[in-house]
Design a protein that fits this description.
By secondary structure, this protein is mostly helical. Among the domains are: 140 residues, Lysozyme, CATH 1.10.530; 45 residues, no CATH class. 47% of the residues lie in helices and 2% in strands. It is built from 9 helices and 2 strands, in the order H-H-H-H-H-E-E-H-H-H-H. The protein has a two-stranded antiparallel ribbon. A hairpin with a 2-residue loop joins strand 1 and strand 2. Helix 2 packs across helix 3 and helix 7 crosses helix 8. The longest helix is centred in the first third of the chain and has 34 residues. The radius of gyration is 26 Å and the shape is globular.
């Protein structure tokens, strides 16, 4: 009888331990599910109308191309809301910086399939830039490097070694993702009629530089651009760039001696004494 009681006690302890382990496993799974809300993988959580509205609101030169951005997300199994968030942080949707000339909202570094402009990939169309960004994220970051969340991707995509505020970048992307997802529900409702996204990535020739056994995890290879040497551009080109970006220094480099820059609105440069 005592032996039977001991067996019951041992059985009870084992049952309690089993339940405790199962409960903890369920808690761990729930936590993983919660943090996965910022995984870039999944069906679209924003629709074409919302994408187009965002691009138009920020006066993007790629405005009206929401369908292509949406379709590429479905093609690669990446939620397009993350493309929007990255594009906003990188180039304000193509309204600032080199993206205006490269047609690359994500400011991708030089990759072999496309021409290179000042260290950045240059694309023939905005749509080609969309596709290259999605390919980089899915083929290289997710499938090759096994980085799938915002927290995992950004430290490599925009490393601190390039003077990026990694924590700020992550916070900005997650915040805008939350805002646009909420806006989708409030204004358009849930995204419907989206094709099922396959867990198997499409067979695509990678357009981005992948890692090798002898390379570190960087989103682009060393570009070999040395800052030393003779000028590669002249003063006229510099003034053109300064003017393009509405710099207050746009005419300073060609100012005659004796002028103070920046001048007041009513000031005039004195004529040179002959």
């Amino acid at each position: 009888m005592k032996r039977f009681s001991k067996l019951l006690s041992i059985g009870g302890i084992c049952l309690i331990l089993h339940l405790a382990i199962a409960t903890q496993a369920h808690a761990d799974t729930s936590l993983l599910h919660q943090t996965s809300s910022y995984s870039v993988l999944g069906a679209p959580t924003v629709s074409v109308p919302l994408i187009n509205r965002v691009l138009a609101f920020y006066h993007s030169p790629a405005a009206g191309k929401g369908q292509a951005l949406f379709d590429d997300g479905v093609k690669y199994g990446v939620d397009p809301v993350f493309a929007l968030a990255f594009f906003m942080h990188e180039s304000s949707f193509g309204t600032t910086g080199v993206a205006q000339f490269t047609l690359s909202l994500g400011n991708l570094r030089c990759i072999s399939a496309y021409s290179c402009y000042n260290g950045f990939s240059s694309f023939p169309t905005w749509e080609a830039g969309f596709d290259a960004w999605y390919s980089l994220i899915r083929v290289v970051y997710v499938d090759t490097w096994h980085l799938s969340t915002v927290e995992q991707i950004i430290p490599t995509y925009a490393p601190a070694s390039d003077h990026n505020d990694v924590a700020g970048y992550i916070s900005a992307v997650e915040s805008t993702v939350d805002s646009w997802r909420a806006g989708q529900i409030a204004e358009f409702g849930s995204v419907h009629q989206v094709p099922t996204v396959s867990s198997t990535p499409p067979v695509i020739t990678p357009t981005a530089v992948g890692p090798t056994a002898n390379t570190t995890r960087t989103p682009y290879p060393a570009d070999q651009y040395s800052i030393l040497g003779k000028p590669g551009v002249d003063g006229a080109f510099i003034n053109q760039i300064l003017t393009q970006y509405h710099s207050p220094a746009s005419i300073a480099s060609s100012a005659p001696k004796g002028c103070r820059w920046p001048p007041t609105p009513w000031a005039r440069c004195p004529r040179r004494q002959r």
